[in-house]
Design brief:
heterodimer; A: alpha/beta; Rossmann fold; Alpha-Beta Plaits; 2 domains; 12 helices; 14 strands; 37% helix; 30% strand; B: mainly alpha; MetI-like fold; elongated; transmembrane (chain B)
Chain lengths: 335, 221
Amino acid sequence: MIELHQVHKAYQVNGRDIPALHPCDLHIGRGEVFGLIGHSGAGKSTLLRLLNRLEQPSGGRIVIDGEDVTALDSQGLRRFRQRLGMIFQHFNLLSSKTVAENVGMPLQLAGELSRRAIAQRVDELLQRVGLAEQAHKYPAQLSGGQKQRVGIARALATAPKILLCDEATSALDPQTTGQVLQLLAELNRELGLTIVLITHEMDVIRRVCDRVAVMDAGRIVEQGAVAQVFLHPQHPTTQRFVQEDEAVDADAQHADFAHVPGRILRLTFQGEATYAPLLGQVARRSGVDYSILAGRIDRIKDVPYGQLTLALTGGDIDAALACFQAADVHLEVLR
Amino acid sequence: MDAFFSHIDWYEIGLASLDTLLMLGGSLLFTVLLGLPLGVLLFLCGPRQLFDNRGLYALLSLLVNVLRSLPFIILLIVMIPLTLLLTGTSLGVAGAIPPLVAGATPFFARLVETALREVDRGIIEATQAMGASTRQIIFRALLPEARPGIIAAITVTAITLVSYTAMAGVVGAGGLGDLAIRFGYQRFQTDVMLVTVVLMLLLVQLLQSLGDRLVQHYSRK
């Protein structure tokens, strides 16, 4: 659906090229929710804006839905943008227009539908995001979550196949964030909408994304399925994001575990294995005692997962490790 | 009380009031017609805006600054040949309007530029992302969003024009200011002075409260 070939971007500052995005390749499939995560200045915002050419690439090729975006002239670019939705961190609604006028605006600009057809489509969209009653209010009269829903309805007005989300939940409180993410997941499921979102919160990635790319200093440093990247982070930046999400300080934890006797290992479960009674079985079979040092059981999008850090003492530790290895879990021996 | 005002020629005052209103209305109309596009152009050519044209921006800026730095009374006199060319007369209401417009347009254009800068960049970006043309961005997003600011700019400009019309008497334009100078000042008719001052004051108050009300009506923030 979206393909980037050696796309890069540099800004001219005082006659010098400052690279914002090093040459990067990326492939995003149809119907996928793809997350780009990075700290501010990592280049994720630039990358997102290259997709609808709010930023002009310095080189490389971008192909979206079979169309070479980099080759479009200004007329072609306008038509192309009309088929792409975008939502923003600060919503960017027109304060001088009502909710209904905001939502209908992309259709009015495109100028293809009659006034009545637009009004009907706007009604539909407002129903879809649960704001039918607010149609004649102005954005200033709405809460943050409601404003973002208007933003989403507006982005969907022209029935695009792709939705770009620029830090769409960063200005919202946790509860509202959950509701907006849920809405995005629904749209992805029900309309087959391809979603590209950027964020600096691993939590957002974990809750809605299928795949993720981690960005650091203008480069994609790691990418893959969310479960893979989240549970087995390789790059230091990714590890930091995961730790932030789990509110774990690895160094402090390491120091704490120094006083714990026995072997320390980390088990990672995914899917149904998360709920299997594995620990008891292994303990009985190998005669080890275990204590749980740290742990978390949660979901990645719709898949449950668990991650436990254990200390094993007594019994046949090698047999226990062999049992774990034979089971449907990922085993890391930490000490 | 009656005795104090007995020397006043009320007909004269009525005529002068009408002249002031005509000068104000005429010059305000042309100031907005010329200044609004100029202000939009200034904004668009500004750094990091849609056109981002340093050369044109510098040129327009210079023009605006030069016109704004001329005292209006000098502009009135310097403009006489051009006024003759435009209106066929340098006298009366028609003779006053070109210098009034020349004096107020750069001022108004700057205010419009400032009002447009107040519009959130994100709104321009969102409109671009919808596939809007530059023309649509200006007319469907920028101007509606800046409407309260532009109305406030028109109000300030109108009030500035009221004070400019008072000087237009110098080129024989008539109006309340002219009456105040000729009768109130040169002929020591304090009563005429008082009446004209009160009328001008009322006019300014009226313009301001009308402008405020419109700004309020169109503000949605």
